[in-house]
Amino acid sequence: MGGKPSKSDYQASTSEKTSASIAYKEWEDHKTTYEPIYLAMRDASKSTGPSTILRRRASADVFQAFDTGGQGDAMMQQADTVSSGSDMAQAYQGQQGLASASALGIQNKEQANVLGIARGQAADAQMGLAQASRLATSEALTRAKAKQDTKMAQLSAAGQIAGAAIGARDDQGKNLLFGDTKLGAFSNRFSDALARQS
Amino acid sequence: MLGMGIGHTASLVRKAGEDAKNAELRKSTEGLGLPTVNDPERTYAQISLGDYRNFVENYKDFEQDMVYEALTDTSLVQRAEADRDMAQQLTTGAAQRNASRLGVSLTPAQQAEQTRQLQLGNTLGGIQGVNDARIAQLEANKSKLSDLMNIGRDINRTSLNQLGSAAADATARKNAYQQAKAAYKQQMYQVGGTVVAGGLLAMAGLI
Asked: Which of B122, B138, B162, B179 is most deeply buried (CB count within 10 A of its CB)?
C-alpha cells in the first residue's frame, strides 16, 4: 500500500552533495588564489612603470648613438659639427614620443584585460543570480500549484462526505439524519442524484 | 501479498547497494577538506551576489576612470611638450661635454651657428614631437574606447538576457495565477451545478 511521501526520499544524493562541495571548494580556491592577482594587475596597470623604463631606454639609445658612435673619428666628427646638437635634439624628442606612445598602449591593454576579467566575473555573477531566481520562481510556482491542488481536493472530498452524510441510511433505507420524514426522503434522493453525477 | 513482499525485498536490496556506494564515496573524499553544502540554491545565490559586490567594491571606480581617460586623456601631448623643454638643455650639455672631452674648440662664429642650429633643431623637433604625440594620443584613446565598447556590449547583452529572464518569470507567475483562478472557478461551477441538479432531480422525484 502507498503511504505519505517521505521527505528523506527527496533528499540530495551523496554524489550530488559531493559535487556541490567540490564546486564550492574550487570557487573558494579561485577567490583565494586569483583575486589578489587580479587586484595586483589592476594596481600595476595604473602605474607608470612601463613608461619610465621605455623612456629611459630611448634616452640612453639616443645618447649612445650620438656620443660614442663606435669609432673615435666619428666622435671627433660629431664634436666638430655645429649641427650635431640639433640632430640629437630632434632624435631625442622623436624617440621619447615613440617610447611614451608604446608605454601608453601597453598600459591601456593591461587595463582593458583587467576590466575584461572583472566584468566577465560580474557577468557570470549576473547570470548566476538570474538562474537562481528562475529556480526560485519554478519552486514557488510548483508550491503554489500543489497548494491549490490540495485545496481543490479537500473541497471535493468535503462535498463527497457531506453528500454521503446527507444520504446515509439504515438497513430499511430510512435516512439516518432526518428519519422517515419528507426531508429524509429528499435527502436520500439528493444523495443518490449526486452519486450518479460524480 | 507475495508480490508486495518480493517488491519490498528488492527495494531493500537496491537501497543497501546504494548505501554501500555512498559510503565508499564518502570515504574517498575524507581528508580533502571539502566544505558541506546543505543548500546549494542558497549557496549559489550568495556566491553570485558576493562576486557582484566584489566587482562593485574593487573595479567599479577603476572602470569609471578608464572611461574618463579614454575620452579626455592628453598625457602624451603633455609629455611631448615637457620633452621639448628638456631637450634644449640636454643636447646643449651633451655638445659641450663632447667638445670638452675631445679638446675640440669652436670659433665664435661656429659656436653661434651651433647655438642657432640647436635652437632650430629643438623647435622643429618640438613641433614634430607634439604633433606626433597628438596623433598617437588620438589613436591610443580610440583604441581604449574600442576595448571599452566591446566590454560594454557584453554587459548590455548579459543585462538584457537577465531582464528577459526576470520578465519571463513574472509572466509565468501571472499565467499560473490566472490558470489557478480559472480552475478554481470551474470547480465551483461544477460543484454548484451538481448540487443544483441533484436538488432538482430529488424534488421532481424522477429517481
From this structure: B122
3-state secondary structure of A179: strand
Q: Rounded to an integer, what distance in angstroms lies between the CA atom of residue A133 and that of residue B166?
A: 8
Task: Give the nearest partner residue to B34 out of A22, A80, A140, using CB atoms.
Answer: A22
Mean pLDDT of A62-75: 64
Q: Cell numbers at residue A11, please?
A: 533528499
Q: Indicate whether A1 pLDDT > 50.
A: no
CA atoms within 13 A on the CB side of A181: 6
Query: Taking each helix axis from N to C terminus, what angle separates A72-80 and B75-102, rounded to the nearest 10 degrees?
Result: 110
Query: Which among A76, A93, A193 has CB closest to B84?
Result: A93
Which set of grid coordinates corresponds to residue B101?
672631452
Identify the DSSP state of A169: B
Tally of residues, chain B: 207
Q: Which of A56, A71, A100 to mutate to test the interface with B (most CBs of B within 10 A)?
A: A100
pLDDT digits (tens, 9 = 90+) for B75-102: 999 999 999 988 888 888 877 777 787 7
Helix A49-67 and helix A84-166, axial crossing angle in degrees, nearest 10: 160
- Return the higher-pLDDT residue of B8 and A84: B8
Task: Please report the sign of the dihedral spanned by the C-alpha atoms of residue B160, residue B166, residue B172, residue B175.
Answer: negative
- Whole-number Å distance between alpha carbons of A72 and B96: 17
A-chain residues near B36 (CB < 8 A):
17, 21
Whether B125 and chain A come into contact, CB under 8 Å, resolves to yes
Task: Compute, in degrees rounded to 10, the torsion defined by CA atoms A152, A157, A160, A165.
Answer: -140
B86: left (phi over 0), alpha (psi -120 to 50) or beta: alpha
Say yes or no for a CB contact (<8 Å) between A141 and B126: no
Quote ipTM for the complex.
0.72
| Cβ within 8 Å of residue B207, ≥6 positions away | A189, A192, A193, B201
Secondary structure E strands in chain A: none
Instruction: Specify whether the CB–CB gap between A191 and A163 falls below 8 A.
Output: yes
Q: Is B35 left (phi over 0), alpha (psi -120 to 50) or beta?
A: beta
612601463: which residue's cell? A50
Q: How far apart are CA B6 and CA B203, in angstroms?
A: 54
Single out the residue of A42, A32, A197 nearest to residue A117, CA to CA.
A42
